[in-house]
Specification:
Elements: H1 16-26, H2 30-40, E1 43-44, E2 61-62, E3 67-68, E4 73-74, E5 79-81, E6 91-92, E7 97-98, E8 103-105, E9 109-110, E10 115-116, E11 121-122, E12 130-133, E13 137-142
C-alpha cells in the first residue's frame, strides 16, 4: 500500500492511528468509536474527509457541523468547535494547515491555502492565502507556503 503524502509537503502523512481515526469517524459503530476516541483522547463529531492529514492524532476535538475541505492538516490538541453556547461550527477551506494547540471557535470561515499558527485562537474569518497567529491576528503577508505556484 502506498503511503499518501500531502501535495505540498512530502513530510506530512497519516500514520496507522490517524487512518483508523478517519475510518472510525465515517462509521456509526458506537462501541468501537467510543473506545478508539477514548484511547486517542479525541472527540470527532463529524466525518473527516479521507484527504485529512492528522500527523499526531491526539487530543483533537472536531464539533459536529464543522465542514472540512480537502488536504487539511490538523495538528495535535486542536479544537474546532462552538463558542459561547452557539451551535455554529467553523468552515475550513482546502489545503489549510492548523498548527498544534490551535482553537478555531464559532461560525467562522477559514479560507483556502491558510496557515493557522500553533496555539492560535481564531474567532474571526480568515481570508484565502493568509497566515493567522495569536488571538485573531491575521498577518498582512500572504502565505507563500501553501499558495499554488502559477
Amino acid at each position: 500500500m502506498i503511503r499518501r503524502t500531502h501535495p505540498f509537503d512530502c513530510n506530512i502523512s497519516n500514520g496507522q492511528l490517524a487512518k483508523w481515526l478517519i475510518l472510525v469517524s465515517h462509521r456509526r459503530l458506537p462501541l468501537l468509536r467510543r473506545l478508539y476516541t477514548a484511547f486517542l483522547n479525541c472527540d470527532i463529531g463529524t466525518p473527516l474527509p479521507d484527504s485529512t492529514f492528522l500527523p499526531h492524532p491526539f487530543g483533537i476535538v472536531v464539533s459536529s457541523g464543522t465542514v472540512l475541505g480537502e488536504d487539511v492538516v490538523i495538528g495535535q490538541q486542536v479544537t474546532l468547535g462552538n463558542r459561547n453556547g452557539t451551535m455554529a461550527a467553523p468552515s475550513i477551506g482546502t489545503r489549510v494547515y492548523i498548527g498544534a494547540g490551535a482553537k478555531i471557535l464559532g461560525p467562522v470561515r477559514i479560507g483556502n491555502h491558510v496557515i493557522i499558527g500553533a496555539n492560535a485562537i481564531i474567532t474571526k474569518d480568515v481570508p484565502d492565502n493568509m497566515v493567522a497567529v495569536g488571538v485573531n491576528r491575521i498577518m498582512g503577508k500572504k502565505s507563500a507556503y501553501w499558495t499554488p505556484q502559477d
